Amino acid sequence: MPNLTRASCEQLDADDPLRAWRDEFILPIAADGVAYLAGHSLGALPKRAIASVQRTVTDEWGDQAVRSWSDADWMDLPRRIGDKIAPLIGALPGEVLVADSTSVNLFKLLGGALRLRPDRRTILTVDENFPTDLYITQAASELFSDHPIDRVSQADLFADPDRYLSDDVCVVTLSPVDFRDGALYDIENLTRVAHEHGALVLWDLSHCVGVIPVDLHSMQADLAVGSTYKYLSGGPGAPAFLFIAERWRDALRPTLPGWMGHQAPFDFAPTYAPADGIERHLSRTPPILSFTALDATSKNVIAPRMAEALMPSRRTSFTPRPPCAKEMPRSPCTRLPIQRPNCSGMESSRP
Fold first, then answer.
1. What is the pLDDT of residues 221-276, one digit of tens each?
2. Is the pTM of this model over 0.70?
3. CATH number, position 237
4. Is 194 inside a domain boundary?
5. Are the C-beta atoms of residues 51 and 238 closer than 8 Å to each other?
6. What is the number of domains present in the chain?
7. Which end of the chain has a smaller Cβ tally under 10 Å, C or N?
């Protein structure tokens, strides 16, 4: 472990090619000498989002009212922002949709995956998966009957995936990053082995999108979900995204079909007919103010982070689990006071 000093940390900041983007954010606590290290829970506020949301409230909602669905192109926001996120995770245009929360999207894609493999029953996940992901998986197992869950050790699964990927595994669902300590796992290899056994893989990218290079297209990924309120600075409660590989886009049936995902929503037909493309997985009317903030953020956050991810010097390979904090050698940083938000009774900020 390198010897961290204040001078070495300041030098890293000075050499960071993204340093200029710091001025694009509001960090109100910085004046008190506090370093904001909670981006994994809520990304900092981009200054451009303030004016954008205000304009939407005053000019679009206020002056144009319902006409803004067409005149301000509100209807296309889920797809338009999805296409902006796509390059950041190595997806193609039309493969990413912004909608709902991470948990809802996980349920939607998990249900779709189970129906894509009707001859297989088992859902494979890991004990160390994010708690909400485990809850959603359990609920899907119960609602889509006869789909048992096989929970194994994360370290064991990545060390020897062939051992756990039986011919009955329908879908594997987990995260590339251990949310507890930041350990990064070899998702490309696991995806490859899962495909060799005929299983689908559903990745939760919430804890890595925007900070770790991800190339879903090159690894032939099937499905993925992720949040935008963390490292993409979409704002509290910002909508999440879902990814469906182009090869599955038409075959994957919507688990929660809704009016917005209908082929002709304004026909108000009593029978559901799925829209063309990924829009068929829209279940609800998008919360426009949240979408507006995320859209503004994508212009000054997603683009530079994409540039950072594509820099060869910053590409991250497999990183084994680091030692626990209590086992790390003491450094000048350990003497810094830590201020924790009052989140009593909250397991996580994940919606």
1. 999 999 999 989 899 999 999 999 999 999 999 999 998 999 998 899 999 999 99
2. yes
3. 3.40.640.10
4. yes
5. no
6. 1
7. N
